[in-house]
Amino acid sequence: MNYGFVKVAAAIPSVKVADCHYNTQQIIQQLDEAEKAGVEIVIFPELSITAYTCADLFAQQLLLEESIKALQQLVNASRDKEVICMVGLPLEVNASLFNCAVVLRHGKIQGVVPKIYLPNYKEFYEMRWFASGLHCDSNITLCGQEGIPFSPYLLFDTPSCRFGIEICEDMWATIPPSSQLALEGADIIFNMSADNEGTGKHNYVRSLICQQSARCLAGYVFASCGFGESTTDVVFCGNGLIYENGSLLASSQRFSLEPQLVVSEIDVERLRNERRINTTFAACRAANHLRTYRHITLDGPAPRPVSLTRFVEPHPFVPSGKELDERCEEIFAIQVSGLAKRLLHTHCRTAVIGISGGLDSTLALLVATRTFDKLGFDRKGIIGVTMPGFGTTDRTYNNAIHLMESLGVTIREISIREACIQHFQDIGQDINNHDVTYENGQARERTQILMDVANQMNGLVIGTGDLSELALGWATYNGDHMSMYAVNTSIPKTLVRHLVVWVAEHDVDATSRTTLLDIADTPISPELIPADEHGNIKQKTEDLVGPYELHDFFLYQFFRFGFRPAKIYYLAQIAFGTHYDNETIKKWLKTFCRRFFSQQFKRSCLPDGPKVGSVVLSPRGDWRMPSDASSALWLEECENL
Predict the structure, then answer these.
(1) Domain ranges of the chain
(2) What is the DSSP letter of 41?
(3) Which H or E element spans position 138?
(4) What pLDDT, in 10s, does the model give residues 191-222?
(5) Are 237 and 193 in contact (CB under 8 A)?
(6) What is the pLDDT of residues 535-572, one digit of tens each?
(7) CATH numeric code, 5-297
(8) How many angstroms separate the CA atoms of 328 and 138, rounded?
(9) Is 567 annotated in the active site?
(10) Does 115 qualify as catalytic in the annotation?
């Protein structure tokens, strides 16, 4: 299975101006390279058969006739190839000359797309030679083949995708043809271009392609002229760019003197899912259905198996480099703004937080202190409650105390031991039986304490649970599951640690920084089971429920794109390489699917909390799911992996 991936390529051949024979041989060489690489669709630059910079030579009959002969060579070269090819040439139709893209496959010209918008300003002078294809919609005879569609309003259907074509300046138009092509179902837009270079222009071009692919919820493949074009007045750098919904997948080396073939895979399944859930896309299509587009079916065998060359991010919630700092700063600001609004709305100047010495409660405390500072409230209004229990270790207890001291909040210590012992006696629970009742009884006791302290102080209980725990249901119902405002509710576990470290490095004194960094290195645990004989944490969450980096990866692919278990498994194998073997990935994927469905009832009654990213499980916002939905289909597919 290809799981919706279509391997595409942007080719940048070397050219000689007006040398159709040389240019054609270069195209054939790259066509062979694309075929060997398993590329399904490849596009060459604008006017690639003649070169773009022929100027008034486009009026020479010899050049036009030779370009047709060259096209026939390419038709012949395509007969024994599976790859779909798009090349550019000047084409005379009804005594007018058009700048065209020609689609070839299996020795047949499948369609011809003329350029609509012809630049005729500054260094561009295309109206001197070419006519606009705006009103073209007919059939023509070319290279001895009759009935070839000739129109800018063509859609090409393959077994794996639907694509459309625009040419260079078309993309720069106020309403690009690609917008309508996408609304009519084109998954991928191909653009053959001849954009010349200029200071600052490259970033602008990339911005245009990025935004157009995002606006169209489409893949976008851009191939622009490179070395060999005339440099009489301008220089071409050879831009090959492949985007998917605003994300750059692959790019060429600029100003290379050598031919380049830029290859990547566009996830059409992902794009179609984005369009399916984006109601604005459907509404826009209904409002802008201005003409009928002709569909051309490209027959042939099913697509060949795709071997991914694109990078699969193992930690999709966690960006890298400078972007991580920017993301952390932005998320922290969103959390702070959300809590500030809730405190002002409720007229509360007191926040109550259970501090365990773990990552989640630490992040909640940091959010609270920043919020109080922003509002001009005294930090003593933050009541940090540490509640030692049967599994509390010295490391987490001391970190909790030290952090609260260094941050200057009010500290309360309330042991839950005696209360839990009494409770277990009341319900007849054997204290030596460390089952779910033993664990959840402690969690609910802690929540009861926090709620009652908040009532005492006329304050709010600030929730600490994170997105990963909500996805897995790794929280005690009406225990740590509940609060009065949950600041971490949409932050995954893999990102919580980075946020804590970011605050440690940017926003606290040296004493707090030391404690925060130790907390970030502490194993994740609810500490509901007694420590081992050395006083170390015995109950490690990831040993019980699975690695959070896997579960966050599963959650992102499942929720964000609606992928099925088989595709998630396939992507996880690539993303994590040899870090996890296939059986381990399969085991925890099954756990994820089982728990995600069975624990929905906890998410159906979540407290309020701020949305910070694209994956949120709030029943009032991004995720509405019946609590009694069956997981049978997903688990069956997991079993058959």
Answers:
(1) 5-297, 322-639
(2) E
(3) strand 138-142
(4) 999 999 999 999 999 999 999 999 999 999 99
(5) no
(6) 776 667 778 889 999 999 999 999 999 999 999 999 99
(7) 3.60.110.10
(8) 55
(9) no
(10) yes
